[in-house]
Amino acid sequence: MKITSIDVLQLPSGNNGATTRGAWSPVLVRINTDEGICGWGEAGLAYGKGWRAGLGMIQDFAEQIIGMNPMKIEQIWETIFRKTFWGMGGGTVVSAGMSAIDIALLDVKGKALGVPVYELLGGKTNEELRTYASQVQFGWGNRVTKQQLDDPEEYADVTRAVIEEGYDCVKVDPIIVPDQSGKSWKIHGPLQKHVIQRVYDRVAAMREAGGEELDIIIEMHSNTDTTAAIQVAEALEPLRIFYYEEPVHPLNVENFVELKKKTKIPIASGERIYTRQGYRQFFEKRVLDVVQPDLCLCGGLSEAKKICDMAWLYDSNVQIHVCGSPISKAAALQIEAAIPNFLIHEHHQRALNPVNRATCKYDYQPENGGYKVPDLPGLGQEPTEECIAKANIVTVASGMPYMK
Q: Which long-range contacts link 395-404 to residues 24+ away (Cβ below 8 Å)?
């Protein structure tokens, strides 16, 4: 089997013309073979600023691997890593391009062998995947329509809404939305008393609404520095926090070391850490209780499996970061089914968006706060023909890209 061409697609899934960080532009890759089997992958740049760079990065990497055997996934990964010069340098865009191609290769191999990807990763370890509702500070589904929640009672309301849907775990960023008092809302420490109080009141309202059985994950998006992160941890520790996500800069391990000394709350990070090289120092310093590799950014499914195996060695649990199209979700479900140190699946608020959900053939959604893993060959997911027809597509064949 040989790779004959590679298509890079920018999906028309809403907000493509937006100028804010909230723009939504998923970038997919389709690897085509001479046996008529194609595989799908995704670059984890659907949000923020970077999707155009991802679109170009995949084209450049595609030129390197046309004609190679798609079943030799490790060989292709090493080819991109070592023979493109920038592959060894890594970083967000480089790793995103590698990730998209790697995921698509696993999809090809699973389809060729007639098995789900989880069989290629060691077989199914977990039959059902516990799931949490993610980013509820922006509301949840159709039950809560306000885009940014302020008052603690609103945080209680959204907590009750997700519990009614069967979730027993929820994630919230309690500091990203300023209160409406008109006071300054500086989130680098030392924090003003009213900021700490508002953050505490929001989470306390969620704890009261959800009861003691509800697990609450605190997300900080690395918007706080070490001083502020320690102050927030001290304030929230009595509320029994499940874990504390990206509390400090995602690439400064010494900041995590300092925070780890000051709190008993388990610490999580990983969506902006790339490949085994990036994770190594965090494991060696023993600062991450929960690792959160994004399959579409960390180097792909192959690399994520190695990262999860390293995490196992250091007693770290795994929550795959999922914030992309249904392709990224399907890939996450496959590896979560296989790894023994799986903790919980992230069901992002964006995954509820009807436009995003309609981009692919299968609308996998959790039931009663849990997921069943798809058993179709490969990833078990691909875009609809209608979505593909509307996408902007660049094809690379014989080393030359061209627009469709």
A: 395/5, 395/6, 395/7, 395/8, 396/5, 396/6, 396/7, 396/8, 396/59, 396/62, 396/63, 396/66, 397/4, 397/5, 397/6, 397/66, 398/66, 399/63, 399/66, 400/63, 401/59, 401/62, 401/63, 404/7
